[in-house]
Specification:
This protein is mostly helical and 104 residues long. The chain has helices at 2-5, 13-24, 31-43, 48-55, 58-62, 69-76, 79-92, 99-102. It has one domain (2-102). It has eight helices and no strands. Helix 2 packs antiparallel against helix 3 (31-43).
């Protein structure tokens, strides 16, 4: 949502964000594409760059709707992936052995 909203002027963001949330939080797999079509028809002429970003990988954006509703929130987030990369960076960071070796 951040990438899409970054392509929209500040005054248009609240309305577009509400439509994006409606697509993301659709109740059924059938209502998700219908809400996406509504968003494209509504904002296509007004914010073409944002709509192009939205439709670029629409199938991937709607893939979580095929899962049961209780599982969707876990699959939408990238938090687990981001945490694993952070842990890898932390483990590969070189720590000096003594304060004297850090000054060199």
């Amino acid at each position: 949502m951040g990438n899409i909203l970054a392509k929209v002027p500040e005054e248009g963001r609240p309305e577009l964000a509400a439509h994006l949330r409606a697509v993301r939080d659709a109740a059924t797999p059938e209502s998700g594409p219908a809400a996406a079509t509504d968003l494209v028809n509504r904002f296509g002429g007004e914010f073409p760059a944002a709509v192009a970003c939205f439709t670029e990988d629409l199938d991937g954006l709607l893939a979580h709707l095929r899962l049961p509703a209780r599982h969707r929130i876990c699959c939408r987030t990238t938090n687990l992936i981001e945490r694993s990369f952070e842990e890898e960076r932390r483990r590969t960071k070189v720590i000096p052995r003594s304060p004297m070796s850090a000054r060199r």
